[in-house]
Each structure stands twice: as C-alpha cells, then as structure tokens.
Amino acid sequence: MITVIFYLFQDQGFFQQLLARIYEGGPFPMTLILLLFFLMIFFIIRSALKLRALPQSFRKSVSLVNQVALLAVIIGLFFQLIGLIQVFDAFESLGNIQPALLAGGLKVTLLPPIFGGLTFIIGRMATFILNWLRKEDPVTAA
Questions:
Q1: pTM
Q2: Domain span holding position 57
Q3: Is 82 domain-assigned?
Q4: pLDDT tens for residues 13-29?
Q5: Which residue from 73, 81, 98, 120 puts its CA 20 to 30 A from 126's CA?
Q6: The total number of structural domains that make up the chain
Q7: Where is the MotA/TolQ/ExbB proton channel domain (predicted)?
C-alpha cells in the first residue's frame, strides 16, 4: 500500500505516467483498449441500474460487460503479436542485437495485453459483484 502511495505522489503524476505508457504501447491499440474500458464502465453502471429488472435484461447487460472486457484482452494480445513481429523484423535487419534493445522492444509489446488484461479483470470483478448483489429474481419473489 505504501508503494502505491509513493508511486502516485512521485514527481511525475499518475495520469502523466499513464499517458506516457499509453503512448509507449502504441497510440492506436492503447486508445482502442481505453475506449473499450470506458464502454465497459458504461455497461457496468447500466447493469447496476438493472439489478431489479427482469432476469433476461440483467443477463444481457452483464453479458455485454463480459464481451467488451474479453474484446479488450483479445485486442491487446493481437497487437502484442503484431508488435513482436515488428521487433523481430527490426532485429533481423540489425544483425547484432544488444540485450537492452531487445528488452526495450519486448517491454513495448507487453503494454497492450497488460492494459487489456486489467480491463478484463475489472470487468470480471464487476460481473461477479453484480451477480452477487442480485439476490433473487423479482418475478419469483412476488
């Protein structure tokens, strides 16, 4: 916990650090994953508002959260593979590779799946909590 607080209050702000990582991971895939994250948050809020709705309506909202979260992971993995191909093409043309250069290239290719995975974890935790909060169906309770 202290490490997180220390990290948030460093010279460079948390959001500046986040934007730097988004730019470093590739503006297109990272922006796409960020948009999916915001869409998932919208679907989570919509599902929370439908806790007392009909079961089909609630299940559809929760399913949308899961699908958007899964899409974020898949997009992250897809762009990681594209990044790995680009890194290996660049190293093939260089011939002699330095380990620091390889590590930097691999770090950049790992950023989209990490952000996609974080989006997925948040989405799955939200669906778990939403399903837990929905105690019983309103139709059977009457």
A1: 0.78
A2: 15-134
A3: yes
A4: 767 777 777 777 778 88
A5: 81
A6: 1
A7: 55-120
